[in-house]
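Q: What does the assembly look like in three dimensions?
Context provided by user:
Components: two
Sequences:
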Amino acid sequence: MDILYNIFIDPFVQMGNAPDFLLQVLWSGFVGGTLYSLIALGFVLIFKASGVFNFAQGIMVVFAALTLVGLYNLGLPAWLALIATIGVMALLAIGVERVVLRKLVNQPDIILFMATIGLTYFLIGLGESIFGGEPKKMITEELGLPSGSTSFEPFGGLVIIEHLDVAAVVMAIVLVTGLAIFFNKTRIGRALRAVADDHQAALSVGISLNQIWAIVWFAAGIVALATGIMWGAKSDVSFALQIVALKALPVLIIGGFTSIPGAIIGGLIIGFGEKLFEIYWGSLLGSGVEGWFAYVIALIFLLFRPQGLFGEKIIERI
Amino acid sequence: MNMAVAPTGTAASKPAAQEVLLDVKNVSLSFGGVQAIKDVSFNINKGEIRAIIGPNGAGKTSMLNVINGFYHPQVGEITFKGETRSAMRPYVAASQGIARTFQNVALFRGMSTLDNIMSGRTLKMHKNFFWQMLRFGPALDEEIEHRHKVEEIIDFLEIQHIRRTPVGRLPYGLQKRVELARALAMEPELLLLDEPMAGMNLEEKEDMSRFILDVNDQFGTTIALIEHDMGVVMDLSTRVVVLDHGEKIADGTPEEVSANQDVIDAYLGVAH
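A: Here is the predicted structure of the complete assembly.
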């Protein structure tokens, strides 16, 4: 009976007893969720345009952040470093298209996937040889990101909201809405889904694969940069960040690999779920729940709804 | 206007003063050691239905791939609308007015019929994507205009009822029709059809034949067609070119070609 009590009653009693603490947990879950969404977004972009999971997205996040910090440390003003980094991501997109993707037109998805793994190791090596392996501090104030915090006192308790988190949420919302509209409502968006489905057919209706791929990788690079700034501000900028990026995998399984709204909802589900579960139920399982919670949820989704919440239906005629 | 180089084949009864839309001259294509096409020349006149026939592996599909830029021939040149080129990218071919369908249906399976056909309008949309995002002003007018055009094609091919269905879910015959619709949405001058009737029953074949004739008739589209059903080829085409083992063995009207001894040998086999 104790166990049942601990699972079904005690956590809710705790929530009721300290509503201010619950609010704090929910807020941090929300912030975590939006950051997951940001990462997942980068994966969705590439997946929509080529039907492959871009293994290199995580390292692109690190690479973008390192470039930004590195350029700033060279003495460039922050705004110039930011613009230059965007330029570098554009060059990277064009380079990837020229050197890697152009040769792989009309090849099976798995080949493209393997190519992204190769790209990952290339970028790790390149990043380390240019910027070195030691963690760096992200420039936040220099970029005009707010610091400090505001505290509220609801229900006689205390809730602290950091301004940086608010900035992260705002940035995520802006990026996500912009990209969602871009890819759903424009000619390029339609072309992109076409490219993901069938290279040959896309070419035959006059879609330039090269152009589409460069655009998408550039968009993914921008998202990587935004993600790198926000994650880098919360921890340091190091190669370990790319592990965090893999959290996007469960987010994508929940939201659907092809859906931008799905990436957001999936991120939020993971963000909220992870935090709430860790705080209120974690002690039953000896804590450390945050590490695996997302993956368990993803497994459950794979069992019952493999295309995710918003993914394109999987259609197979036999 | 670009006059025909006298065709090298067996054809003799062609009217001389036709405008040539596409001229294939001495094209050879090989993959490593395999010669897919050996020194083939033929032309397609404006407004005609030109069939390309031949046994399996004769190089018919390779020929279409050369024409719309998927393959780049090692030797030879192709003149389309008076412009000569040896290598070109498929999307350039598309922008010049060459559309095609594929032997093994190449549709965007996850997208609806409507979206598939709309993708054929890609090259016709010019408005800034920024306006498209906002669904505002000129971009909205443009979208509406393209929808009108697409609806016309949908009516023409009688596929109104599957407008919103993801094409992956459609039966084969209808998928072929959607593919044709997507090609038509490009308003091509030259339409390449790679076995448009493969795997169809008699009724579907009759429908498809009717559509092909109507397209040719009403839109004035020039058509190059690969087909194995000889009855269909004889009924539809103005002229026929026959390939075998990558070489051209005959070229002429359906009657001439079907009487040609080389063609009969190629199809029925010959004792050596």
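Follow-up: The first strand of chain A starts at residue 149 and ends at 152.
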